[in-house]
Amino acid sequence: MIKLLTSWLESANSAETLFPLNNLPYGVFSVGDGDLRCGVAIGDRIIDATGLEAAGLLRADPQADVLDAPYWNDFMGLGPKVWSAYRTALTGMLAESADAAAQDAVTTFSVPMAEAVLHLPFRVSEYTDFYAGKHHATNVGTMFRGAKNALPENWLSIPIGYNGRASSVVVSGTPVRRPWGQIKGADGELPVFAPSQRLDLELELGAIVGQPSSGPVTVAEAEAMIFGYVLLNDWSARDIQAWEYQPLGPFQSKATATTISPWIVSKAALEPFRAPTPPRERPLLPYLAEATSGLYDIELSVALAPSGMRESAIAHTNFREMYYSAAQQLAHHTTSGCPMNVGDLLGSGTISGRAPDSRGSLLELSWGGKEPVKLDTGETRTFLEDGDTLILRGHARGNGYRIGFGDCSGTVLPALEDPYAR
Amino acid sequence: MIKLLTSWLESANSAETLFPLNNLPYGVFSVGDGDLRCGVAIGDRIIDATGLEAAGLLRADPQADVLDAPYWNDFMGLGPKVWSAYRTALTGMLAESADAAAQDAVTTFSVPMAEAVLHLPFRVSEYTDFYAGKHHATNVGTMFRGAKNALPENWLSIPIGYNGRASSVVVSGTPVRRPWGQIKGADGELPVFAPSQRLDLELELGAIVGQPSSGPVTVAEAEAMIFGYVLLNDWSARDIQAWEYQPLGPFQSKATATTISPWIVSKAALEPFRAPTPPRERPLLPYLAEATSGLYDIELSVALAPSGMRESAIAHTNFREMYYSAAQQLAHHTTSGCPMNVGDLLGSGTISGRAPDSRGSLLELSWGGKEPVKLDTGETRTFLEDGDTLILRGHARGNGYRIGFGDCSGTVLPALEDPYAR
After folding, report:
1. How far does the CA of residue B315 sit from the closest CA of chain A (Å)?
2. Nearest CA in chain B to A332
3. I need a labelling partner for B245 at 20 to 30 A (CA). Which of A82, A124, B220, B234 fits?
4. CA distance A167 to chain B (A)
5. How far apart are CA A354 and CA A186, in angstroms?
6. What's the rounded Cα separation, in Å, for the pair B89 and A216?
7. Chain B partners within 8 Å of A191 (Cβ)
């Protein structure tokens, strides 16, 4: 495991920071009434990458400005060689050995993180959500179809996924309004239109596609197309989902909001933390075979803070628990010839471990609402209540440092009294 | 039913044309090596709307150029009042009563349709496909789950839909490569990765969202957001679909291609052809109630031409056969608060009538492959074969005129021998 890369910027060397020099995650920020700019987190500061580019001090493309936009998509489109060269150059400007000119440039073109507002780091082209956690699929399947038929027949062969709604993706901190929808009680003859009573989270990692494809790609090619990862909360209205999802899958139950962390952690930063996918219980078809370990050792947690109260941890898990990697999911996504584009977002699927307190959704944690989760404050939860704030966190742990994403949070607002009142 | 509006442009007055003055559909064209331009079809010509705007002869927005782009999205974003004013102005320039200056402008800024190549008329923001044809859902359900459980329990309450893949949308004339995918035979222990043997069409109409929304909208508000309609072929690999679709819906089976007609027929042009949605077999929830008739009397047909042979009609149906209108689908789409954007495309779902020869897919026409469809050439088809060209057509019929979309066609190319050979 590589060591902390030390920086002349002291706050980047703290064992507490999520943003040491080893990380350098990509985000979009603004300060005051200023415009949205591309930024890179380091310690307690944000480097103004847009400003460095405009000043000619650090350019991704000598010919064209790619960071004069409120998203990293144009940069991603330049491809892995540029990603690598840019990271190397920026590392050089921040390393302890950096010369005075580099230190001056960074000092001029950076702001305190505490003064910045963070925005969506990239423009989401299309969004696909997968179902690649075996413990999650087994838990949900057991509740819905019984233990014998828990895993769908295709699950061990296909990285099951469905298309989500890109327009639902919001950045951490955006409040989430409890949705209305069609809900049918167990004994109800007809459905009612009402606010969801079973609003839930799903703890996921999102992989960001940084290169396009126009035909089937191998897992190795898919791996090379991935730019980085974000934390992702796939807010889910379980009561709406239960009534709508047959036969064509989840739709409005997943369309209210999908929250992502403000920072994209690059594949390069996560490289030292690669972890193997688990043993295969059924042989995979050759097109899904992996040359390299496709998962990462990323510690994940979920905390819940009721309105006005302190937060309680409700789950701890690890991205290693997944059955399929993002590269396998992306390769499968292209089998049909489906074109993939820069800025496509792939949700991993809910990340649950084997232990009861390692489950990535309240549906599982409360076992369908039957076993309320106890919070440190004495409160209990089956599903989310109005005013609850949900915080996903994640980091990879190096020797004396951590690589983090920043909080991925959202507060539940009460449902509209009348969704059609204007 | 309103009469033909006559034009000084003679070809627009023919009973044969799909593009009389009553139509004025929106498309994107190029001539030779020229750039892509916004155009409007009239008779056998295309009006260069981009050119008229640049010359100041017909502007949608006095302040900004909205047609200096290879798509109509910016124009759509201006909203219904502008759509209406632009149509009125253009109608005036083309009507028999038009003055010499208007006729000169149109003559200068138009090209023969025969010389033009047509492109996607709008940039697809996101794509949703519905399942709103009751005959289709009943036929498919009967094949998959038996006659007793044909219609899913939620079908009469929800306009069932799922998110599709916007990147798969192509314009008429684009060849469609037979996809590879995971397929499991009835007696196979494990799935194989192979070219689809059950490639199918789905005859649909696509509604184009021309205005954004950020919360739940009523059916009346949804109706006002719709800009127009295209023909749509939702190419479907039935064998891939059967193995992948549980529990989260169709994914790669629908991602190879979605072909749309080159012309967007505006809601205004279809206005005289409104038709009611059918009687409700179960009361709809109030949020789905319609104030106006939400369907249209649009005659639809499917023709199939084997490679090198003449085409045979294989189905005739009508958009009146649907159970839910596009406005109802769009209203349902927003119930969760899902944001909708300019350029979102909503597939109606397969349009099948009651009669066997009015079914909008080969799955239904051949009853799951058991009853081959006879072509006029003596050939038979269960599913599509390599080299087959599929042509969807549609028009509303007025008194002495037709409002058409242009052919929505595609030819099936053989599967790649090895999808991973480079």
Report:
1. 25
2. B252
3. A124
4. 6
5. 29
6. 47
7. 154, 157-158, 285
- Contact (CB<8Å) B286/A193: yes
pLDDT tens-digit profile of A25-49?
999 999 999 999 999 999 999 999 9
Residues shown for chain B: 422
Q: Residue B272, exposed/middle/buried by CB under 10 A (0-12, 13-18, 19+)?
A: middle
- CA–CA distance, A409 with A260 (Å, rounded to integer): 8
CATH 2.30.30.230 location in chain A? 10-119
Q: Say if the Cβ atoms of A193 and B285 lie within 8 Å.
A: yes
Q: Mark A369-381 as b/e (b = at least 16 C-beta within 10 Å).
A: beeebebeeeeeb
ipTM over 0.95: yes
pLDDT tens readout for residues A310-337: 999 999 999 999 999 999 999 999 999 9
Rounded alpha-carbon distances, angstroms, from residue A224 to A24, A46, A67, A211, B98: 19, 27, 22, 8, 59
Q: Which CATH number applies to B127-413: 3.40.140.10, 3.30.830.10, 3.30.465.10, 3.90.850.10?
A: 3.90.850.10
Catalytic residue among B119, B135, B136, B395: B136
Closest residue in A to B288 (Cα) is A193
Using DSSP, state whether A404 is helix, strand or coil.
Answer: strand
User: Which of A23, A26, A112 lies closest to A402 in space, CA to CA?
Assistant: A23
Token look-up 């992989």 returns A207
pTM, full prediction: 0.98
Instruction: Give the span between the Cα atoms of B204 and B169, in whole angstroms.
Output: 13
Distance from chain centroid for Cα B155:
22
Residues for chain A: how many in total? 422
Q: Residue A227 carries which side chain, given as an amino acid letter?
A: F
> Which residues of chain A are in CATH 3.90.850.10 domains?
127-413
